Amino acid sequence: MQFTPQLEDKLKKLMRNYPIKRSALIPMLLFAQDEQGFLSQETIAEIAGRLELTVPQVEETISYYSMLRKKPAGKYHLQVCTNISCLLRGGEELFEHARKKLRLAPGETTPDNLFSLEEVECIGACAWAPAIQVNYQFHHELTPERFDQLIRELERSRT
Amino acid sequence: MMGETVKIRVDDRELEVQRGTLLIEACRAAGIEVPSFCYYPGLSLQAACRMCLVEIEKAPKLQTACTVPVTEGMIVRSNTEQVTQARRSMLEFLLGNHPLDCPVCDKGGECELQDMVFRYGASESRYGEAKRHVEEQQWSPVVYFDAPRCILCYRCVRVCDEGMGVGALSVVNRGVHTEIAPNHGDHLECEECGMCIDICPVGALTSGAYRYKARPWEMQYTSTICTHCGDGCKTTLSVRNNKILRGNNRDRSGINGEFLCIKGRYAYDFVEHPSRLRQPLIRRGRELVETTWEEAIGTVAAKWSEILARRNKAANNTLAETSEKRSEGFGVIGSNHTTNEENYLLQKFARTVLQTNHVDHHRTADYAALIHALANESAEQPSQAQRPPLARSKDIVGASAILLVGNNPTEQHPLIAWNIREACRLNGARLYIIHSRRIPLLRQSHRFLPLGLGHEADALRHLCGEPEATQALLGETPSGDNVTADLLNDFRNRLQEEKDVIVVFGDEITGPDVSLLIRMGSRLSGQTRYIALGDYSNSRGASDMGLLPHLLPGYRPVGDAAARAFFEDRWKSPIPATVGLSVDDMVAATLQGGMDALYVVGANPLKGRNPEDFCGKTFLVVQDLFLQETAQAADVVLPAASAYEKSGTVTNTCGELQRLRKAVGVLGTRTDLQIFASLAAAMGATLHPSQPEEALEEIRQMVPEYNIPLANVLAGGAEAVLNPNGFKPLAAPAETSGRVYSAQDTLFTSGTLGRFSNILNLVPERNIRKEPGPA
Amino acid sequence: MASILGGIVETVAALASGFKVTFRQMFRPTVTENYPDEAPNFQNRFRGLHVLQRDEAGLEKCVACFLCSAACPSNCIYIEAADNTAEQQISAGERYASVYNIDYNRCIFCGYCVEACPTDAITHGHEFELASYNVTDLIYRKERLLAQKTTTDQTAAGDPALSMPSGRNQSAS
Fold it and tell me: Could you tell me the CA-to-CA distances from B746 to A17, B407, B452, B766, B773 in Å, in that order?
């Protein structure tokens, strides 16, 4: 399987960083996922081969970490924090609202592949709770209204 | 090699143990109970189950005894209230999701969790929540997985990856959703060895063959030796109502410990295969029809006596011989599966009663050449003779280096492969491989010398320092490797530095090449020991017992008058002096009509041929378990008992003598020993002895190598059959034309016996790994 | 004369004291049972012929765990287990007893099997007339031991042996 030259560069650098090959597994998977949106079977097999691991060993790691996924996520991957700080300031309600608004169960993607939704543990934005993360972008102190607005903006930006 | 010891104190007892020992091992060795699920000797440490928690002084919290190495002055308590409380709570956690379906669970009665809860657990649980339920999955014909029962000790994952080197199992998901998963989504593609089932402390992984058949306390256990490959693993057969329900070796007795491959664990089912012969057959016209034992034995004895009388007459009348077409008389083909006693008596029967040296069997390793080469070597270098030059299978684990020449132990010798992996993993042994294919053991190899098909001898010459051979090895090999001079020299230099090498070789090295191998081995700087790999459970024993056209028992040449006299004196009968025909020669002579009678015991020399071509060519008597090609051409077929249905001894490929014990009986069959005796009696001859124990006693008197202490063997252990004082030089044997070739069985075939094991035919991997067939 | 009168009194007194028990018992409830003309009356806990029970759905309760045969001191219970399949569901668990024999030549009616049973499948019924001219008849097979499928309707026609009262659940009346 062929990776893009940019990804190849990153992977090569990673391979040099670790004395034990398999230590590079998680960053490699993350970089591959960032570029391809998800981890396909071919990607998994390729990375397993490069790190001299078996495919089941890589699958183990992927299934352990919720940030690694084997299905494509939406263009905007919404991660709603429901950990303590956010919970106290309405994170749970926000998550429920998001589910209803987008008509999504956690882990699902809208039919137009625009949004996917996930409930996550602390994303480190406690001071501005409740917070959500859209791809790598943070959105702070959300209320259901502000959430709806955010969704509208994102929908508009598609076109 | 005693290392430095440290003193520790456990529960007010002073213990002195080796530095670096794990605390759990130190406690157990001293008889102090430390329970555990995930800790398993020989596997990597996990510390997942938290059952082995103990109090260590100055440690702030309870520590897992399975991961803490002992240190000087350590003070440990394993019986305090805190420890008891911890164990009870851990079990309560485990039972939080574990279903209480012990009455239907196959593990009930031998379940470690059951025992632990009984011993350490609380009588009540504080969990009122519903347990997590997942449906049971079938992963392969022999492996079932019941996820809720799993306690996540990861033993299966580790034994599959580390022990078997397969890595078919993995742990997926996280937290309460953690599960063991097979390598192909919903099913397994692996060696189907069943180690994961055996090692599972609970009933999460269960065996498809034994599923819901019986409970452990209901069965009788007979430990015997697996009848398939030449490694001689001990398998404990669980029997109920004269039916074998399962095979395993949980008590870790025998040379294999608890290791068994699919054949040892599941392929006992040929015993009750529907096509098993249960009555003698006799040819009437073109048909083989069922008959009584009396008629079958009577017919054979009458015909043989007639042929014998005619030949005696012809021998006295030399004129008649010249005018008549020359006939070879009797031919006898023995088995790789029958016991030493039976092999010994068969060749004795052939040589004394039938007066023929046309005795042979399918030779799968050149033991005769190895024994002679070692004898000659020790004659040249008396110092070498002090050490036993043949390694036992367990020696592999302790060796610092292993040289593998040919063969594919992963498929053909699972125990040898297991031992090699163990040596590399646990003791850091260096594995050198000389091979024409990229075999699975390369994963463990230290140095690999790839070569073209049939160039093994060149590789040995290269190691002996012959430059022409080095030239022959250079270049690209069929396996796609490029062989450079550097690679060759590096391989030789590294091997040269090794102080303790075990050389393991397959049928790639036979005849004069074996001497070459020994010459190479004796040039190494330290101790060198050898293992020749033969295919079947008693391949080695058949050679040792003289089922060979040119050698008497104990490899005494048939042409040697002194050797002959020794046996003639004891057997009270003359022995023919000429070297006999090999299997191939006998089959060829039969096709030409040149054999008066052929007696085939537990073998199928006509494998892959058309039985029709052989019908009526000779008087063919076949004694076997199934009606295979050879039996289909026979005039009389005698149904024999399999190895699981008789007592006796077998010798594995490393030369370890072990005892077979009768597990079941199949109505209508007789053991080969009984059949020899009845045939001899019906011919008016006496063939002593008639009991396996007496036969072994006679073997011990006639074959000095077998005159070893028997106590261990009788108790179910293994004893190496060679004289510990080394070899006495033997006269060189006359050359014989017999081929030595392995049947190249895979994990899922076992000569022609494997055809009759449903399990071996059921597993899908059988079709993925095709039988290569004889070279 | 007096001696004659005295004799009469004595005789009457003797008869009265002798019949006292008889007459007293005449007005008490009868304890003798007219077996075999009438059915005997058992206490609830009487340990008679075993009955293999069914659950509410009519499935066999026995899951062939072998604990009864393990508990049996006279080794009279013989079981063979088999897999339930989707097409043929015999018991509620994953497996069922394909063969379940009790050898009444050996059974001592100790009740250990009933104690051991984790699913309350084997119970003691109240049937006790086991005499036979043939010892092989005393090996009872599962078909003979199993409670009838319609447990609510005890009067259902069929083999009387199968419609016997079913152990613990049945009152002694």
Answer: 42, 11, 21, 8, 10
Q: How confident is the model at residue B723 (pLDDT cuts 50, 70, 90)?
A: low
Nearest CB among B170, B173, B174 relative to A57 is that of B170
For residue B463, the one-letter residue type is: L
pLDDT-derived band at B371, boundaries 50, 70, 90: confident
List, in order, residues 6 or more apart from B6 with CB less than 8 Å away: B16, B17, B18, B19, B70, B71, B72, B73, B74
Site from B106, B210, B215, B241 to mutate, C interface, most C CB atoms within 10 angstroms: B215
Residues 45-64 of A with CB under 8 A from B: 54-57, 59-60, 63-64
User: How far is residue B726's CA from residue B731's CA, in Å, rounded to a whole number?
Assistant: 16
Asked whether at least 3 C-beta pairs link A and C within 8 Å, the reply is no
Q: Are B542 and B361 in contact (CB under 8 A)?
A: yes
Q: Which residues, 6 or more positions from A130, have their beta carbon under 8 angstroms from its beta carbon?
A: A80, A81, A85, A86, A89, A90, A91, A94, A141, A142
Rounded distance, CA B751 to CA B310, Å? 37
Which of B46, B170, B174, B188 to probe the A interface (max A CBs under 10 A)?
B170
Closest chain C residue to the Cα of B101, Cα to Cα: C93
Nearest to B212 among C67, C69, C81 (CB): C81
Instruction: Based on the fold, state whether residues B139 and B192 are members of the same structural domain.
Output: yes
Neighbours of B165 (CB within 10 A): 19
In this prediction, residues B562-591 reach a mean pLDDT of 92
Between the two ends of chain B, the Cα-to-Cα distance in Å is 44
- Is there a single domain that holds both residue C87 and residue C20? no
Instruction: Looking at the structure, tell me whether residues C15 and C66 fall in a common domain.
Output: no
**B165: containing domain:** 98-124+132-272
CA-atom Rg of chain C in angstroms: 25
Task: Check B172 against A57: CB less than 8 A apart.
Answer: no
CA B643 to chain A, closest CA, distance in angstroms equals 39
| Reported ipTM | 0.82
C–B contact: 3+ Cβ pairs < 8 A: yes
- Give chain B's count of helices (H) and strands (E): 26, 32
Give the per-residue pLDDT at A66: 85
**B488 plus B548 within the same structural domain:** no
Is there a single domain that holds both residue C25 and residue C100?
no
Query: Are B669 and B557 in a shared domain?
Result: yes
> Number of structural domains, chain C?
2
Output the domain CATH number for residue B393.
3.40.228.10
User: CA–CA separation, B25 vs B41, rounded Å?
Assistant: 9
Q: What is the domain-level CATH number for residue B209?
A: 3.30.70.20
* Domain encompassing residue A113: 76-158
In a domain, B741, yes or no: no
Task: State whether B103 and C93 contact (CB < 8 Å).
Answer: yes
Is there a single domain that holds both residue B437 and residue B555?
Answer: no
Instruction: Check CB contact of B180 with chain A, cutoff 8 Å.
Output: no
Q: Distance (Å, rounded) from C-alpha B551 to C-alpha B579?
A: 8
Residue C44 falls within a domain, yes or no? no
Interface residue of A25, A57, A65 to substitute, partner B, most B CBs within 10 Å: A57
Query: Which chains have at least 3 CB atom pairs separated by less than 8 Å from chain A?
Result: B
Q: Are residues B181 and B71 in the same domain?
A: no
Q: Residues A41-56, buried b or exposed e (16+ Cβ, 10 A)?
A: eebbebbbebbebbbb
* Residue C145 phi, psi dihedral angles, 5° rounding: -90, -20
Q: For the segment B387-440, what is each residue's pLDDT rounded down to a tens digit?
A: 568 899 999 999 999 999 999 999 999 999 999 999 999 999 999 999 999 999
Residues B348-369 have pLDDT tens digits of: 999 999 999 999 999 999 998 8
Q: Given this model, what pLDDT does residue B428 score?
A: 93
pTM: 0.89
